Amino acid sequence: MSEPSELLTSVLTCMDHRLDPLAILQLEPEQAHVVRNAGGYVTDDAIRSICLSQQLAGTRRVVVLHHTDCRASEKTAEGYRAMVESGTGVSPNWDVAPVGDPLQRVQVAMEQLRASPLVDTSRLEGHVYDVDDGTLTPVE
Asked: What distance in Å separates the CA atoms of residue 40 and residue 34, rounded to the nearest whole number?
């Protein structure tokens, strides 16, 4: 394992343009690796990225940052599959399992990360960012 560096935090968040995770968490670019995907879901790739951040850069703090008014929770899994198939002509081999409540999405993501033997979750935290008023709510 590499020596701990100034890079202290891995952030898993949504790709929504309204989120600036570094500003929201008051971090400098050299203090964080940011993993973004539609909905901020815990995927195999997100686990891989966080694991490698920990192993290569010595990060230990992991933050799950979700937000209000997320478009990734607008449809059912079937609705997303139909949308993608209609737009591309191909049925995706991946699922989107939307959960409407951002607090619940953070809790589920934290449980999924804790279940992974590849991620050190001893410094795991979760937050919901309100895109309307800029407040940050911690999640247990």
From this structure: 11
User: Do residues 100 and 67 lie in contact, with contact meaning Cβ atoms separated by under 8 Å?
Assistant: no
Token pair belonging to 24: 């929201």
Q: What angle do CA 123, 128, 130 make, to 5 degrees?
A: 150
b/e sequence 59-91, b meaning 16+ C-beta within 10 Å:
bbbbbbbbbbebebbeeeeeebbeeeeeeeeee
User: Are 106 and 99 within 8 A, CB to CB?
Assistant: no
Residue type at 83 in one-letter notation: M
To the question of pTM greater than 0.85 for the whole model, the response is yes
CB neighbourhood size of 100 (10 A): 9
DSSP H helical ranges for the chain: 21-24, 44-57, 77-88, 102-115
Torsion angle of the four alpha carbons 21, 23, 25, 28, in this order, in degrees rounded to the nearest 10: 100
Share of the chain above pLDDT 70, in %: 90
Whether 62 and 114 have beta carbons less than 8 Å apart is answered as no
Helical (H) or strand (E) element with 73: none
